[in-house]
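Ticket #4471: structure output looks truncated?

Reporter: J.K.
Steps to reproduce: submitted the chain below (377 residues) through the standard prediction queue, then opened the result file.
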Amino acid sequence: MKQKTVLIAGGDGYLGYPLCLYLTKKGYKVVSVDNLSRREWVTEIGSHSAIPIEDRDYDWETVYIDITKYDTISSILRTYMPDVIIHLAEQPSAPFSMIDVRHAVFTHENNVNGTLNVIWAMKEYCPNAVLIKLGSMGEWGCPNIDIPEGFFEIEYRGRKDTLPFPRQAPSYYHQTKVHDSNNIMFACKIWGLKSIDIMQGPVYGSMIDEVDSEHKTRYDFDAVFGTVLNRFCAQAVIDYPLTVYGKGEQIRGYININDSMRCIELCINQSLEKGEYRVINQWTEKFTINELAELVKQESKQIGFKVRINHIDNPRVEKEEHYYNPDHQKIYDMGLKPRKLKGIIIPTLKDLLQYKDRIEQKKDFILPTIDWKKGRL
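Returned output as attached by the reporter:
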């Protein structure tokens, strides 16, 4: 069987770096594309990764380019002719996009324009490749009905049709994900491109099974780039009260970083028809924020930590009590055998202990400094 060439845009990020490692070890030819901007954004808001990432060794080909420049990404696709393009190269923070007009506009220019460049370059140079695009479960919002995987059948005034499920993005960052989804779906329709659009829930974890001490991914814990469970674990390590926003009854679907890697590999090996646009809701377990905080507290207690939970004003504009029942059957149909969160928290805490000093250095950035209505506080 021909070795597949997989181009990973965003190969230096929290998911991109371990994905490069994971797929290389699985026998794929990996080409990483990145401009290291995630490092710059985190530095801009005053924080850093708990796990040092400055010196990295790469067992795969790495190219430093900006995909918002069409000539550069088109040249890369023309050179490598990848079988699969995994697009992770976007500004990934909702709070960052809500700081002010400059950050909102930048997030749109970076994310939407980058995706447009990728799909246009695919059309010109590798139209038979499969695009695996990282979207967000946040695109759907929290409607008072079940959330399908992309499409649903609707009847209105006596007529029926199958239509894309409405998207209700909660931030300017999530709005870019909606625009990406619409643009990719359109490209599949008019040019016959093939794409899997992954609506992924928040990812947690500090390591993947295939990692060694010299190949760890970044780990953000600040209020801008740190996902909630990763932030809670870092707070527990330095005896900082867990910051629960508002009532803490917001429900989301979460996924372990190992399962994220496996799901993406399963997507790589899917057979898509010309013009097919497939949507996957990629999460494994649902929790309220209160439930996450309590799990961290209980698991921390087993290794001698005394964790406190502190409710603070919610800087976001969101429903704090709501119905939430998204489908996620496709990842199981593809063969995923998911991990449970309980039991994973303790290894994460133990891993972070060796970076306690780095977390302490930037603990002032754990409290939110960006408000959805006021911008930067």
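Triage note (M.O.): checked the attachment and the full token line is present. The two ends are 56 Å apart (CA to CA).
Status: closed, working as intended.
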